[in-house]
């Protein structure tokens, strides 16, 4: 960037937020929104591209591969200086090399410290988020006019820049006049007014060489040095540029991304060749019905349950007994007051030596020996007998559960 002398200062405070002129998808026809592939990182280890913009932390510089004829066009962007340190120059400007830009290897500006000097137009050189300057540089000498010292105009940044972005729009008339607007307010309090010769030079150079976009962060010259400070910490300084829109024609370099570039067409599906349909798959055999589940019947069995029980009997001497058990009625839990199948089951379970008594018990109504639940065995019954009338209770239990004795 080129240092310039400040002979007068125009102070304008702008408050409030400024809405970006072109919402996404509504850019003017033919406008460009350069993306990462359209830009070069000249230097810096902490440069990140973000859609049509970038973020620079510490020292660094980016530049466009293309050079634009901006006559009758404009450059528009949002710049976030909320984390830019005072005394650090965060900027956006153009240079016009007479050859295609390749980045740091052939960089040029008005001072000519790296290569042959070339025209430079400073859109914004910000001192942190305090104030900024704009400057014209047409002549690589110190003979007056917009020379290496430049024709400059300064303006303080609004309070909103401490916490968010400010919006810049720079227009270029066909006669070469550059007008810089911040949040809609033109910065035009020039210390030297750009004369007709400077305008003609801008128009001439834009037509033959175009303007390469440049943006960097560095320490050295800063506007408002006495008010905002100088010699700040560049390593921790950070600023961002977003929503960059360029209206112009490409003079040198590859054409960058257009803002309203149509979406790529969907891929054409491959042509399908006619193929002989494959033979139908063989018909699977009908499923084998599942074998019946083995019966768990072990007594009183009938039909399939009886067959299953018999087939499960051992083949030794106990086979006949097992078969009889399968077909015999199951012993029930009924021990008194039995009826129907329960009575038959109770009778079949009576022991031979007390058979008559047991049968009478099976058939007789149930009564409680213990005055409550007699349980299901002689042991349960006797265990529930109270001390009072214990002998009578035991006798009753013995009659109730004769098969246990």
Write the layout of secondary structure elements.
Layout: E1 39-43, E2 47-49, E3 54-57, E4 60-80, E5 89-95, E6 120-127, E7 131-137, E8 151-156, E9 165-172, E10 178-182, E11 185-186, H1 196-208, E12 211-218, H2 225-228, E13 238-252, H3 303-311, H4 319-327, H5 340-348, H6 355-363, H7 378-383, H8 390-400
Antiparallel strand pairs: 1-4, 2-3, 3-13, 4-9, 4-12, 4-13, 5-6, 5-12, 6-7, 7-8, 9-10, 10-11
Features:
8 helices; 13-stranded antiparallel β-sheet; disordered N terminus; 405 residues; 13 strands; alpha+beta
3D architecture notes:
- A hairpin with a 4-residue loop joins strand 2 (47-49) and strand 3 (54-57).
- The longest helix is centred in the middle third of the chain and has 13 residues, at 196-208.
- The protein is of the alpha+beta class and 405 residues long.
- It has 8 helices and 13 strands.
- The termini are far apart.
Kindly summarize this structure in a few lines.
With 405 residues, the chain is α+β, with helices and mostly antiparallel strands. Helices cover 17% and strands 24% of the residues.
Distance between the termini: 119 Å
- What is the CA-based Rg, rounded? 52 Å
Order of helices and strands: EEEEEEEEEEEHEHEHHHHHH
The backbone outline, from C-alpha atoms, is: elongated
Low-confidence stretches: 3-22, 291-295
Q: How many DSSP-defined strands?
A: 13
Number of helices: 8
How large a portion of the residues is in β-strands, by DSSP E? 15-25%
How would you classify the helix and strand content by structural class? alpha+beta
> Mean pLDDT, nearest integer?
83
């Amino acid at each position: 960037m080129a240092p310039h002398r400040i002979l007068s200062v125009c102070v304008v405070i702008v408050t409030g937020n400024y809405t970006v002129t072109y919402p996404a998808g509504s850019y003017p026809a033919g406008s460009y929104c350069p993306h990462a592939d359209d830009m070069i990182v000249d230097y810096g280890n902490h440069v990140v591209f973000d859609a049509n913009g970038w973020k620079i932390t510490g020292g660094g510089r980016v530049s466009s591969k293309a050079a634009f004829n901006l006559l009758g066009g404009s450059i528009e962007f949002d710049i976030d200086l909320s984390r830019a340190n005072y005394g650090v120059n965060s900027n956006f400007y153009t240079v016009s090399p007479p050859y295609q830009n390749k980045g740091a290897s052939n960089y040029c500006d008005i001072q000519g410290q790296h290569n042959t000097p070339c025209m430079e137009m400073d859109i914004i050189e910000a001192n942190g988020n305090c104030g900024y300057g704009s400057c014209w540089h047409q002549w690589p000498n110190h003979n007056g006019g917009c020379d290496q010292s430049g024709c400059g105009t300064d303006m303080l940044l609004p309070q909103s820049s401490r916490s968010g972005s400010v919006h810049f729009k720079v227009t270029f008339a066909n006669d070469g006049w550059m007008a810089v607007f911040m949040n809609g307010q033109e910065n035009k309090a020039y210390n030297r007014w750009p004369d007709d010769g400077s305008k003609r030079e801008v128009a001439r150079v834009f037509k033959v060489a175009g303007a390469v976009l440049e943006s960097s962060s560095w320490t050295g010259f800063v506007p408002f040095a006495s008010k905002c400070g100088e010699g700040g910490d560049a390593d921790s300084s950070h600023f961002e540029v977003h929503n960059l829109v360029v209206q112009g024609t490409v003079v040198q370099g590859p054409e960058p991304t257009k803002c309203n570039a149509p979406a790529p067409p969907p891929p054409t599906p491959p042509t399908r060749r006619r193929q002989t349909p494959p033979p139908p798959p063989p018909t699977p055999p009908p499923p084998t019905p599942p074998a019946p589940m083995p019966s768990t019947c072990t007594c009183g069995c009938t039909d399939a349950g009886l067959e299953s029980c018999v087939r499960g009997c051992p083949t030794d001497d106990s086979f006949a007994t097992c078969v009889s058990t399968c077909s015999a009625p199951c012993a029930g839990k009924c021990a008194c007051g039995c009826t129907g199948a329960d009575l038959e089951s109770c009778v079949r379970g009576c022991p031979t030596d007390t058979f008559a008594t047991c049968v009478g018990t099976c058939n007789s109504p149930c009564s409680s020996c213990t005055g409550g639940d007699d349980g299901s065995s002689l042991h349960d019954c006797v265990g529930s007998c109270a001390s009072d009338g214990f002998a009578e209770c035991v006798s009753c239990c013995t009659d109730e559960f004769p098969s246990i004795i």
